[in-house]
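Me: I'm a chemist; would you kindly supply a protein sequence with its structure tokens?

Assistant:
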Amino acid sequence: MTAVPDRTRLAPGLSIARLVTGLWQVADMEKDGTVLDRGVAAGQLRAYADAGFDSFDMADHYGTAELITGTLFAGYPAGEKRPVAFTKWCPPPGPMTRDIVRAGVHDRLTRLGVERIDLLQFHWWTFEHPAWLDALHEMAALRQEGLIGEIGLTNFDAAHLNVALADGIPVVSNQVSFSLLDRRAAGPLSALCARTGVRLLAYGTLCGGFLSSRWLGQPEPETIGDWSRSKYKRFIDAAGGWPALQAVLAAASSVAQKHGVSISNVASRWILEQPAVAATIIGVRLGEGEHRADNLKVFDFALDDEDHAILDASFAQTSPIPGDCGDEYRRPPFLTATGDLSHHLSTVPSAYRVDEVAGRPGRLRVSSGSVWEPLAGYSRAIRTGKTIHVSGTTATHGTDRCVAPGDPGAQTTYIIDKIAGAIAALGGSLADVVRTRVYLRDVGQWEPVSRAHGRAFGDIRPANTLVQAGSLVGDYAVEIEAEAIVD
């Protein structure tokens, strides 16, 4: 039997266990206001590290997880190699100035008690607010200064990971939900990882414990006690409900019996064998049940063709989780621990300024801050009555920088986010768009542009015109205008 977890190189100089110890349940254990004893919890974490489970994942909002890990690190003598620490920074959307980003990073350094964060993972709530690129570029500067070892993302879909990479951000990982029930990451995101070398860190692999023998053949629970199971029960419902879970559990049980392992082992092994996956993240409740010995069994067997056929047959009895990775935080159905996040997203400040047009009662205009809006005399968007007209929009970030030069697909993704933000500022949404017009520098680049357009408008399907512009200014490969009618 394997004595310690297998390891993989996430980046040069950054070796991690392929079973990462996740500390998100610290927040659940502390949700009633009771804070874990930091010294005791650090000792419990030390037992994981000593057993080879020496890669820890946490976040700024996982209760005192960062402080517990900092206490653990403080107990290591100078010169002794300490465990690897991943943490996440999840700021509320808004302007991401140099000072705001640096304050967020320094807070992580202080809580962990380290001089450099091994892997800092960034989460952003809505891409309609474009400041996420400002944050990532400032993080890249901090990486150059040595305060961040490597940059990761969390809950980014394939399209926006591509934008970050095309815009020069040195991303090494993306942490996303990935399980036998939630297989979204096996699609476009894994294909992008194969092309770029970015690795996936998979969470939710055991669906909050639902992918285990405990639930095989059991009735659907009427109540859910903790945040983690509340979240993954929503995933189960979205995947076809309790019968779909039972079909997957029965298939995994058949495979598990063949190999003499547990259903949870099979669930983890299927994820670890996905080419893009660097590691799975297994949550722990410090001081409660420990499953290290059982978890190690994932390295003692491999799935064969027969196993995959059995599992694939069960997948056919499930419904695909809607959208791409991370969509559960940004649009219905909201598959989160707290459920519907629309109230949270409605409080996100707009990146655009809305003004009344002087002398034209009822007419509103949106400005994005481009230096050309006042110079050339135009608005990003105008609303008159129920109609919103969005000007030809390019992948300009801030006042004058072109995003993702040379990548028309990434530029299209960024442009549509700008259009969505402008329409939202005037009380509409992309669902209200009835027409788009796309201008290309090179009509031969139509496919990545069309695919990016389709990701946003595939269900809406506005009237559309594709035009070869012949020449666009600078590094811009695409320009898009839109018209929306708000009911």
User: Anything to note?
Assistant: The chain has a mean pLDDT of 94.
